[in-house]
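Blinded run. Sample ID left blank on purpose so nobody reads anything into the name before looking at the predicted structure. Input follows.
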Amino acid sequence: MLKTFLFILTYLCCLMTNMHAQKKQYYSTDDYKQIDSLTFTKNKDDFFYFKVESDSEVVNLKAPRIKKGKLTVEQFDAIKTSLNAGEHYFDSTAFLVIEYFPGLDSCNRSGDRTAVIANYEAHAAKIESMDNVKQFFIYQEKKGIEMYGNINWQADRDHAIQKSFFMLHFPCSSMVVIDRSGNYYSHRGEHNLSEAFTIIKKKKNFQL
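Blinded prediction complete.
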C-alpha cells in the first residue's frame, strides 16, 4: 500500500513539474490582435509565421503576405521626411513605389545573380520613365545591396519604412505601393517586381 502511494505521489509530482515547465502559448496577428489557435492555422499559404519566446511564454505571430491599409497623416509625413524629399517633391506624384531590403537571409542569398541584376535594373529604369510615380530602394542593413546591380539605395532613416510596414523580417525583400492619399498595398517577402505596375494600373487593389 505504501509503495502504491509513493508511486502515485511521485507520478503527480512529475506531472505538476511538467505542467509548470510547459510555456504558455499565445496566438496573435502581426498587428498584435489576439486570435485562437484554429484561426492561427487557417490559410497557411497566404501567411508568414513567426515565434517569439520568453522564459515562461511563447507568442506565435501570423502575418499576411499581402497587407493593405491607410497611413495616418503623421505616418505619411514621417515617410516623406525619411525619403529626403523636398516640400513640393510629391506635388505631381500619384504613387510611391518602395522596394525594401531587410538584410541578408537564406532567401536573398540564393538565385541567379545575373538575372537578379538584370531584373532590378530594368525595373528601376521602367519606373523612372513614369511621370507620376516615384521609386525608392530602401535598405535596413546595407550589406548585400550590391547583389542588385547599379541601384540607388538609401538607408531607412529613423526606421520609418520598417516601422510602418515591415516590423518583422520577411524573406528576400518586400514591396509597398502608396498612393497620394496614403492608401497602401504591401507585398511582404519574395515577390515579382512587375507586381508594382499591376497595383498602379488597377487602383481597386488598394481596397481593403
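Unblinding after everyone has recorded impressions. DSSP finds six helices and nine strands in the chain.
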